[in-house]
Give the backbone structure.
Amino acid sequence: MSCCYVLNCSGLGTSQIQDFCSSYDSWSECTGKVQEQEQLSTPMVWIGLYVAAASLVCSLAMAADAFLGFRNRKLWFPCRFFTHNATSLTLLAVATKLPLDLSTSMPSKTDQLAKLCSAVFMCTMMGSFMPSLGTMDNKDLLVNVTALGILVVTMVVNVIIQLYTGAISEPVYIEYPVVMALMFILLVTIIFSALTVPVCKAILELKYSEMHKIASNEEEPEQNGKFNVDKLKADVVKYWMMAETGSSQFLMANSATCAASGAICLIATLTLVEVETRAYLWGERHPTGNPEYPFSDYSYATTVILAIQSIGVLVGTIPPALRWFTASTFEFSKRGNNIYREIFKVETYWVQRLVDWKESPLAFKIGGLKCRKFLQGTKSLILNMGIRVQKFIVGASKLLQLVPMFFITLVLSCCYYCKWLERKVLQKVSASSINTDLELSRYALKLEGDEELPRGILIDISNNANRLIQRSKEKQPKKLMDLLRKSSCFTGVAEFHSNKILSLHSEEPHSCWSLSLVRLTSIAVALPKIDNNAVNQLLCSVSEGLFYVNIIEKSLDTCGDLGKIRNALDVVWVEVQLYRQWLGKDVRKMSLEGKSSKETLQQLADIAKNSVMEYRKELNCSLEENPLHWPVKVIAANSMYRISETLLPNCQGSDSKTGEKLFEQLSVVIADIIGACLTNLPRVISMKCYCGAIEKREKSIRLAARLLGQTEDVLKILQQCQLPSLDSDRVAHIGKSSTSTKQMNPLDSDQVALVDESSASTLRFPLDLNSSDGKNTPSCGSGELLIAVEQEA
């Protein structure tokens, strides 16, 4: 009985195949086995290319983080694209398949180098995403670190098996154990660094709250309803400093353990460079290293993997290595010559979590007193060992920071000498700049034992805020500003209100700023004989305004009652802006039918009324349910009915003149409503500056900076239209609907002042808005703009 062997014939010549096949009964039987082997090995090439694709994605993500770090001058390189999560761990497992493969023979030099490169690539990725540990909560930390530990331990065990069986050979036999040891040290460092994250977050939260109270107490109250744009910008930079220095990624990236991971990654990269240099420059010239060793079943895919992962290692090592040098520079600038005396000092927060676990009782009770005493003692013994290991890791990590000190000393000496020459040439230093840096340093958050941040880091952080504000200025809503210049300081709203028009329901449903804008814009689009360019200009202006109106509504709608309405209004606005439709009716077609403005308004009112009545008929009720639960189209229809009926008495005289006049009046009212809403922008920006959740803090302050940059000129326009004698709590007081009827008259801008509902003489403007907080801040809901009229004595 003959035995059949599966032959890996890739790279073998015909004579070699013939020699192998001489043991078979016939040449046809041998060639059949060869063809079968080729068919079985074909998918391996595609698997290798899949590994190369995963490696490319990881490399691009690390390169993007490195690019953003250099661009924003954040040399601690926060993780944005390549973070420690389920996605990155999955890509990591795919990209490191070669060292985990125990079944495929990979004898060639390229195969062996590709295996080693994958292991180094994993070390690089572990060091690259280490700062992202600070963004996780306790559950995510446990899950992700455990998953990473399983992957690393699996790789280490597989490599040990391959070393023992001889599957790993020259030219990487010596370097592989070194890389595996570095990988295991990285894993232990990540595990013990993760233990400090909850404690450090709690400390930063406390310091952030304390600094927020100090900053709030230092703020000067606004006078006469005026807001200072420069002061608002200073507040944004101030809170930007607090958010950046209080960021968990900033803390983790500048920690001793993260700096040590950069040194480990650099050593692993240098090991790979040494092996590849030795293999390709001083090794065999044959493509596979030895003619007797063919390519593996992965074929040319191993070459692609080796090339991509080698580039990924070089690019991905840059952020961890620079974190190492940056942290060393940071420590040197903080402590100076005292660094050698304090290098082995371990701060309390490093071991606080382990100490708390040690002192806490067992969560369960098993057996008798002796058993519980034994378990408690065992737990204390294990945690004492963990505390010692943690202190050793921190001490060793700080010791690694001394390595670049010689180079840092030379570089800093050159920098100080250049600055000394610059002062000699300029003969002066900007006092305002120094004062600004000293002022901002007060808002830099620090942990126990940390000194003041270096002046260069403070300057970079504040410059990042100013650069974002300046870049946002390039995206200012110019068409919206043109519309706001038509505003009559809210007085135009009074011309379009009539208490004689009753709602289709006894209880007015909730509404919001955006609904008022959408319904008025729809009416303006439907008016006949209006220039198409003017309509498009209005639509673009309102679209730009709705972007900021929605931000204000979401920020000030603390109860969240109007979220459903806002989401549905987005759909309604798309119909109005793109298709010129309202409630399924083509409003632009109405304007082209040759009807008069009065007929168009009457048609809109009828459509709105019919929509409400059909809804009542379908439910066989009288709309006694909560108006908040109405469909948005029913709310919009009810609102459209009232405003259309209110505008009908204004449609008199020549139709063309009436249409143009009404369009201009509607444009003024729309500008008034947007302007009244945007007066809340300073408050919203201030709200975005402060964010309680540490994970969302940086995103929130960036939004505040972008809002300030985009709306700086808008705020200046609103300052010119600001109503006189307003305090910060009465920027645009929107009270709840009043059952009393007030007399309506147009007002001059110098006769207007916002007051409470209890004022004796008030006017009601139908803005359909509501106050969302206790400070009379307008945001949403059905309500009225209350305006006091000065009475003559």
Notes: Strands lie at 581-582, 585-586, 734-736, 752-754, 762-765, 783-789. The CA atoms of residues 40 and 471 lie 57 Å apart. Residues 27-71 form the longest helix (45 residues). The radius of gyration is 35 Å.
